[in-house]
Protein backbone atom coordinates (compact mmCIF):
# COMPACT_ATOMS: atom_id res chain seq x y z
CA UNK A 1 0.00 0.00 0.00
CA UNK A 2 2.73 2.45 0.94
CA UNK A 3 6.45 2.68 1.29
CA UNK A 4 8.69 5.30 2.84
CA UNK A 5 12.41 5.18 2.02
CA UNK A 6 14.91 7.11 4.07
CA UNK A 7 12.40 9.84 4.91
CA UNK A 8 13.64 12.77 6.98
CA UNK A 9 11.93 15.95 8.05
CA UNK A 10 13.66 19.00 9.44
CA UNK A 11 12.90 22.65 9.96
CA UNK A 12 15.46 25.40 9.51
CA UNK A 13 15.34 28.72 11.30
CA UNK A 14 18.46 30.69 10.42
CA UNK A 15 21.41 28.46 11.22
CA UNK A 16 19.37 26.29 13.51
CA UNK A 17 18.18 22.99 12.08
CA UNK A 18 15.65 20.95 14.04
CA UNK A 19 15.26 17.33 13.01
CA UNK A 20 11.80 15.91 13.48
CA UNK A 21 12.11 12.63 11.57
CA UNK A 22 15.36 10.83 10.76
CA UNK A 23 15.85 8.17 8.08
CA UNK A 24 12.45 6.54 8.36
CA UNK A 25 12.00 3.32 6.38
CA UNK A 26 8.49 1.98 6.55
CA UNK A 27 6.36 -0.35 4.47
CA UNK A 28 2.70 -0.90 5.19
CA UNK A 29 0.81 -3.63 3.34
CA UNK A 30 -2.83 -3.51 2.38
CA UNK A 31 -4.90 -4.98 5.22
CA UNK A 32 -2.63 -3.92 8.08
CA UNK A 33 -3.88 -2.01 11.13
CA UNK A 34 -0.85 -0.14 12.46
CA UNK A 35 -0.59 1.86 15.67
CA UNK A 36 2.12 4.49 15.95
CA UNK A 37 3.14 5.10 19.54
CA UNK A 38 5.84 7.10 21.27
CA UNK A 39 6.36 10.05 23.61
CA UNK A 40 5.04 13.54 22.86
CA UNK A 41 7.24 15.28 20.32
CA UNK A 42 8.67 12.04 18.92
CA UNK A 43 7.27 12.86 15.47
CA UNK A 44 4.11 10.74 15.33
CA UNK A 45 1.82 13.39 13.87
CA UNK A 46 4.47 14.54 11.43
CA UNK A 47 4.91 10.97 10.21
CA UNK A 48 1.16 10.48 9.83
CA UNK A 49 0.84 13.76 7.93
CA UNK A 50 3.63 12.74 5.56
CA UNK A 51 2.02 9.34 4.99
CA UNK A 52 -1.23 11.17 4.18
CA UNK A 53 0.53 13.59 1.82
CA UNK A 54 -0.54 16.56 3.96
CA UNK A 55 3.08 17.38 4.70
CA UNK A 56 6.19 16.96 2.56
CA UNK A 57 9.35 15.28 3.78
CA UNK A 58 12.64 17.17 3.53
CA UNK A 59 14.36 14.10 2.09
CA UNK A 60 13.57 10.63 0.93
CA UNK A 61 11.30 8.71 -1.37
CA UNK A 62 7.68 7.87 -0.85
CA UNK A 63 5.30 5.56 -2.69
CA UNK A 64 1.55 5.20 -2.26
CA UNK A 65 -0.38 2.65 -4.31
CA UNK A 66 2.78 2.32 -6.41
CA UNK A 67 2.80 6.03 -7.25
CA UNK A 68 6.07 7.88 -6.56
CA UNK A 69 4.68 10.68 -4.41
CA UNK A 70 7.96 12.61 -4.43
CA UNK A 71 7.61 13.02 -8.21
CA UNK A 72 3.97 14.11 -8.29
CA UNK A 73 2.63 17.62 -8.54
CA UNK A 74 0.54 18.99 -5.68
CA UNK A 75 -2.65 18.60 -7.72
CA UNK A 76 -1.93 14.93 -8.42
CA UNK A 77 -1.19 14.32 -4.75
CA UNK A 78 -4.48 15.91 -3.78
CA UNK A 79 -6.39 13.79 -6.26
CA UNK A 80 -4.71 10.64 -4.94
CA UNK A 81 -5.55 11.71 -1.38
CA UNK A 82 -9.19 12.45 -2.12
CA UNK A 83 -9.74 9.20 -3.96
CA UNK A 84 -8.10 6.91 -1.43
CA UNK A 85 -7.52 8.38 2.01
CA UNK A 86 -9.74 9.19 4.95
CA UNK A 87 -8.04 11.33 7.60
CA UNK A 88 -9.22 11.79 11.18
CA UNK A 89 -7.48 14.90 12.50
CA UNK A 90 -6.46 15.30 16.10
CA UNK A 91 -7.99 18.80 16.15
CA UNK A 92 -10.98 17.67 14.02
CA UNK A 93 -10.55 20.33 11.28
CA UNK A 94 -14.27 20.51 10.62
CA UNK A 95 -15.47 23.31 8.37
CA UNK A 96 -16.97 25.94 10.69
CA UNK A 97 -19.39 27.32 8.10
CA UNK A 98 -20.93 23.93 7.35
CA UNK A 99 -23.33 22.03 9.58
CA UNK A 100 -22.74 18.46 10.73
CA UNK A 101 -24.62 17.00 7.78
CA UNK A 102 -22.66 19.06 5.26
CA UNK A 103 -19.31 18.35 6.92
CA UNK A 104 -19.89 14.62 6.67
CA UNK A 105 -21.14 14.93 3.09
CA UNK A 106 -18.16 17.00 1.85
CA UNK A 107 -15.81 14.17 0.77
CA UNK A 108 -18.59 12.68 -1.36
CA UNK A 109 -18.60 15.81 -3.49
CA UNK A 110 -15.19 14.77 -4.86
CA UNK A 111 -16.61 11.44 -5.95
CA UNK A 112 -19.11 10.75 -8.67
CA UNK A 113 -22.01 9.94 -6.36
CA UNK A 114 -25.59 10.95 -7.10
CA UNK A 115 -27.68 13.05 -4.71
CA UNK A 116 -29.94 10.25 -3.50
CA UNK A 117 -27.01 7.97 -2.77
CA UNK A 118 -25.19 10.80 -0.99
CA UNK A 119 -28.21 11.31 1.25
CA UNK A 120 -28.36 7.61 2.08
CA UNK A 121 -24.64 7.47 2.88
CA UNK A 122 -24.78 10.53 5.15
CA UNK A 123 -27.91 9.19 6.87
CA UNK A 124 -26.10 5.92 7.51
CA UNK A 125 -23.16 7.74 9.12
CA UNK A 126 -25.41 9.94 11.26
CA UNK A 127 -27.16 6.82 12.42
CA UNK A 128 -24.01 4.78 12.99
CA UNK A 129 -22.46 7.51 15.15
CA UNK A 130 -25.73 8.39 16.87
CA UNK A 131 -25.59 12.03 15.83
CA UNK A 132 -28.82 12.25 13.82
CA UNK A 133 -30.09 14.84 16.29
CA UNK A 134 -27.01 17.00 15.71
CA UNK A 135 -27.17 17.12 11.92
CA UNK A 136 -28.25 20.78 11.66
CA UNK A 137 -25.76 22.07 14.24
CA UNK A 138 -22.47 23.75 13.42
CA UNK A 139 -19.11 22.59 14.82
CA UNK A 140 -19.01 25.45 17.35
CA UNK A 141 -22.24 24.10 18.85
CA UNK A 142 -20.77 20.64 19.50
CA UNK A 143 -18.67 19.21 22.31
CA UNK A 144 -15.14 18.01 21.51
CA UNK A 145 -16.31 14.40 21.56
CA UNK A 146 -19.17 15.12 19.17
CA UNK A 147 -16.80 16.94 16.81
CA UNK A 148 -14.47 13.96 16.94
CA UNK A 149 -17.32 11.63 15.93
CA UNK A 150 -18.23 13.93 13.03
CA UNK A 151 -14.57 13.90 11.96
CA UNK A 152 -14.54 10.09 12.01
CA UNK A 153 -17.82 9.90 10.06
CA UNK A 154 -16.42 12.29 7.47
CA UNK A 155 -13.27 10.22 7.08
CA UNK A 156 -15.16 6.96 6.70
CA UNK A 157 -17.97 8.06 4.40
CA UNK A 158 -15.99 7.36 1.23
CA UNK A 159 -14.90 3.90 2.47
CA UNK A 160 -11.26 4.89 2.00
CA UNK A 161 -8.61 2.34 1.07
CA UNK A 162 -6.42 3.89 3.75
CA UNK A 163 -7.71 5.38 7.00
CA UNK A 164 -5.29 7.62 8.89
CA UNK A 165 -6.33 8.67 12.38
CA UNK A 166 -4.45 10.92 14.80
CA UNK A 167 -5.58 10.11 18.36
CA UNK A 168 -9.10 9.30 17.08
CA UNK A 169 -10.54 8.65 20.55
CA UNK A 170 -8.67 11.37 22.44
CA UNK A 171 -11.85 13.27 23.29
CA UNK A 172 -14.29 10.40 23.63
CA UNK A 173 -15.36 8.74 26.84
CA UNK A 174 -14.05 5.21 27.31
CA UNK A 175 -17.25 3.52 26.12
CA UNK A 176 -17.33 5.61 22.94
CA UNK A 177 -13.61 5.07 22.48
CA UNK A 178 -14.02 1.30 22.71
CA UNK A 179 -16.88 1.42 20.20
CA UNK A 180 -14.72 3.35 17.72
CA UNK A 181 -11.87 0.86 18.15
CA UNK A 182 -14.30 -2.04 17.63
CA UNK A 183 -15.52 -0.32 14.48
CA UNK A 184 -11.97 0.15 13.20
CA UNK A 185 -11.18 -3.49 13.90
CA UNK A 186 -14.29 -4.56 12.02
CA UNK A 187 -13.52 -2.31 9.03
CA UNK A 188 -10.00 -3.70 8.98
CA UNK A 189 -10.94 -7.38 9.35
CA UNK A 190 -14.14 -7.53 7.35
CA UNK A 191 -13.66 -4.86 4.72
CA UNK A 192 -9.89 -5.01 4.47
CA UNK A 193 -9.49 -1.32 5.20
CA UNK A 194 -5.86 -0.45 5.88
CA UNK A 195 -5.62 1.67 9.01
CA UNK A 196 -2.81 3.65 10.60
CA UNK A 197 -3.53 5.39 13.87
CA UNK A 198 -1.49 7.47 16.29
CA UNK A 199 -2.32 6.59 19.85
CA UNK A 200 -1.01 6.95 23.39
CA UNK A 201 -3.23 4.13 24.55
CA UNK A 202 -1.83 0.60 24.88
CA UNK A 203 -5.38 -0.63 24.90
CA UNK A 204 -6.23 1.07 21.59
CA UNK A 205 -3.00 -0.18 20.04
CA UNK A 206 -4.08 -3.68 21.05
CA UNK A 207 -6.91 -3.53 18.52
CA UNK A 208 -4.43 -3.38 15.65
CA UNK A 209 -2.04 -5.82 13.98
CA UNK A 210 1.26 -3.96 14.39
CA UNK A 211 2.78 -1.47 16.82
CA UNK A 212 5.48 0.96 15.76
CA UNK A 213 7.35 2.88 18.44
CA UNK A 214 8.87 6.22 17.56
CA UNK A 215 11.60 7.80 19.64
CA UNK A 216 13.30 11.09 18.73
CA UNK A 217 12.11 10.86 15.14
CA UNK A 218 13.35 7.32 14.57
CA UNK A 219 11.55 4.01 14.43
CA UNK A 220 12.70 2.31 17.60
CA UNK A 221 10.70 -0.86 17.12
CA UNK A 222 8.05 -2.36 14.90
CA UNK A 223 6.34 -5.57 15.82
CA UNK A 224 3.32 -7.51 14.70
CA UNK A 225 0.89 -8.43 17.44
P1 LIG B 1 4.11 13.94 18.25
O1 LIG B 1 2.92 13.76 17.36
O2 LIG B 1 4.89 12.68 18.48
O3 LIG B 1 3.82 14.65 19.53
P2 LIG B 1 4.88 15.92 16.30
O4 LIG B 1 5.08 15.24 15.00
O5 LIG B 1 3.61 16.66 16.52
O6 LIG B 1 5.14 14.88 17.46
O7 LIG B 1 6.05 16.93 16.54
C1 LIG B 1 7.41 16.54 16.64
C2 LIG B 1 8.27 17.73 16.90
O8 LIG B 1 8.26 18.58 15.77
C3 LIG B 1 7.80 18.58 18.07
O9 LIG B 1 8.92 18.93 18.85
C4 LIG B 1 7.21 19.80 17.41
O10 LIG B 1 7.38 20.93 18.21
C5 LIG B 1 8.01 19.91 16.13
N1 LIG B 1 7.28 20.54 15.02
C6 LIG B 1 6.12 20.13 14.48
N2 LIG B 1 5.72 20.95 13.51
C7 LIG B 1 6.68 21.91 13.41
C8 LIG B 1 6.86 23.09 12.59
N3 LIG B 1 5.96 23.41 11.65
N4 LIG B 1 7.97 23.83 12.79
C9 LIG B 1 8.88 23.49 13.71
N5 LIG B 1 8.76 22.42 14.51
C10 LIG B 1 7.69 21.65 14.38
P1 LIG C 1 -30.47 24.59 -1.16
O1 LIG C 1 -30.75 25.22 0.16
O2 LIG C 1 -29.02 24.64 -1.54
O3 LIG C 1 -31.37 25.04 -2.26
P2 LIG C 1 -31.54 22.15 0.00
O4 LIG C 1 -31.85 22.91 1.23
O5 LIG C 1 -32.63 21.45 -0.73
O6 LIG C 1 -30.75 23.03 -1.08
O7 LIG C 1 -30.42 21.07 0.38
C1 LIG C 1 -29.51 20.60 -0.55
C2 LIG C 1 -28.72 19.47 0.07
O8 LIG C 1 -28.15 19.94 1.28
C3 LIG C 1 -29.47 18.28 0.50
O9 LIG C 1 -29.73 17.36 -0.51
C4 LIG C 1 -28.51 17.67 1.49
O10 LIG C 1 -27.55 16.91 0.77
C5 LIG C 1 -27.80 18.83 2.09
N1 LIG C 1 -28.10 19.14 3.51
C6 LIG C 1 -27.47 20.15 4.14
N2 LIG C 1 -27.81 20.21 5.42
C7 LIG C 1 -28.70 19.25 5.65
C8 LIG C 1 -29.40 18.82 6.81
N3 LIG C 1 -29.21 19.40 7.99
N4 LIG C 1 -30.26 17.79 6.68
C9 LIG C 1 -30.40 17.20 5.48
N5 LIG C 1 -29.76 17.55 4.35
C10 LIG C 1 -28.89 18.57 4.42
UniProtKB/TrEMBL annotation:
This is ABC transporter ATP-binding protein. CDD domains: ABC_MJ0796_LolCDE_FtsE (cd03255). Residues 2-225 form the ABC transporter domain. GO terms for molecular function: ATP binding. SUPFAM superfamilies: P-loop containing nucleoside triphosphate hydrolases. InterPro entries: AAA+_ATPase, ABC_transporter-like_ATP-bd, ABC_transporter-like_CS, MacB-like_ATP-bd, P-loop_NTPase. It comes from Mucilaginibacter panaciglaebae. Belongs to the ABC transporter superfamily. The keyword Transport applies. Keywords: ATP-binding, Nucleotide-binding, Translocase, Transport.
Amino acid sequence: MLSLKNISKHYKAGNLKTSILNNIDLDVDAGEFVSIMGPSGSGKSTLLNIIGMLDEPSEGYQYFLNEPIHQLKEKQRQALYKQNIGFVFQAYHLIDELNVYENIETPLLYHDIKGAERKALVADMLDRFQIVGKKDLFPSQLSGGQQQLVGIARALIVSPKLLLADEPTGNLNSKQGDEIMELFRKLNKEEGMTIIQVTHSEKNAGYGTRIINLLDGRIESSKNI
